[in-house]
Design brief:
Shape: globular
Strand order of the largest sheet: 7-6-5-4-1-10
Order of helices and strands: EHEHHHHHEEEEEEHEE
CATH superfamily: Phenylalanyl-trna Synthetase, Chain B, domain 3
Number of strands: 10
CATH class: Alpha Beta
Strand content: 15-25%
Radius of gyration: 16 Å
Number of domains: 1
CATH architecture: 3-Layer(bba) Sandwich
Largest sheet: 6 strands, mixed
Distance between the termini: 12 Å
Length: 236
C-alpha cells in the first residue's frame, strides 16, 4: 500500500508539501479525555486569538482559497477544513469531541492553521492517491448513504475503489472514517505556501508524537513533496 500524490498536482501546486503520519496498532479508546482536553485548549486559543478580520486576511487561509478556485470550487461555499473549523468556533458553534485520533488531528490543525485529516487504513482498498477527479467516481459523504460524485478536475483523495475526500479537504467519506475501534491510520497535514515543506514536516512530527503518546502503538512521520511524491505504508 502506498500514499502518493499524482504528478499533475505538483504541476499545478509545485510547492505542495504533505506530512504523512502512519499509526499502527493504536488504541483509539485510550486516554480519550487527554485528547479532548488538547482539543478544548486549541479551541480556546482560537477564540482568544482569532477574529473574522484576521481570518479574512490570513495568508494560510488565502492560499487554500486560491487553490480551491483553481479547480472550480467556490471558497465561500466550499471552505478548506481548517477555515471551516475556525469559522465554526468564531460563530459560536461547537467543534465536538469525536474520538481520540480525530480530536488530536483537529487540535493540531487549529494550533498551526493547516488542514489535517486521515483515514482508517483497514477500510482503505489499495493505494491512497491525491489526484484530479475524472468525474463520476463514487463518494459517500461522512454519515451519508447516497453517492455524491465529484466533478471532473476536482482535487480528491481516493483509493482503488472510492473517493475518500472531496474538494481536497472539504468533505470526508463515510467509508474510511475513524472510529473507536480503529487501529491503523494514515493521517495527513497539508501545506501550501506560506507553509513550507520544513514546517509541514515539523507539524507532522508533532502529530506523530502526540498520537504515539496518547494512543500507543507505533507511529512514523514522512514528507511527501515533488521530490518524493509517495511513501510506502506499512502497518504490520
Amino acid at each position: 500500500m502506498r500514499f502518493r500524490v499524482d504528478d499533475a498536482l505538483f504541476e499545478r501546486f509545485p510547492d505542495l508539501a504533505i506530512g504523512v503520519v502512519i499509526a499502527a496498532g493504536i488504541d483509539n479508546r485510550r486516554h480519550g479525555e487527554a485528547a479532548a482536553a488538547f482539543l478544548r485548549k486549541q479551541i480556546a486559543a482560537v477564540r482568544n486569538a482569532w477574529s473574522p478580520d484576521r481570518l479574512e486576511a490570513d495568508p494560510r487561509i488565502a492560499a487554500w482559497r486560491v487553490a480551491y478556485r483553481s479547480f472550480g470550487a467556490k471558497p465561500k461555499k466550499h471552505r478548506c477544513s481548517v477555515e471551516n473549523a475556525i469559522r465554526t468556533i468564531l460563530d459560536g458553534g461547537e467543534l465536538p469531541s469525536i474520538n481520540t485520533a480525530v480530536d488530536i488531528y483537529n487540535a493540531i490543525s487549529l494550533k498551526h492553521c493547516v488542514p489535517a485529516g486521515g483515514d482508517d487504513l483497514d477500510r482503505v482498498v489499495g493505494d491512497i492517491a491525491l489526484t484530479f477527479a475524472e468525474g463520476g467516481e463514487r463518494f459517500v459523504p461522512l454519515n451519508g448513504t447516497d453517492s455524491m460524485p465529484p466533478k471532473p478536475g476536482e482535487v480528491i483523495y481516493r483509493d482503488d475503489e472510492d473517493v475518500l475526500c472531496r474538494r481536497w479537504n472539504w468533505r470526508e467519506c463515510d467509508k474510511s472514517k475513524m472510529t473507536d475501534a480503529s487501529r491503523n491510520l494514515c493521517l495527513v497535514v497539508e501545506g501550501l505556501p506560506p507553509v513550507s515543506a520544513e514546517e509541514a514536516g515539523r507539524i507532522s512530527a508533532e502529530l506523530s508524537d502526540v498520537v504515539a503518546t496518547i494512543c500507543g502503538g507505533s507511529t512514523s512521520a514522512h514528507l511527501v513533496d515533488r521530490n518524493a511524491p509517495e511513501v510506502e505504508i506499512e502497518t504490520a
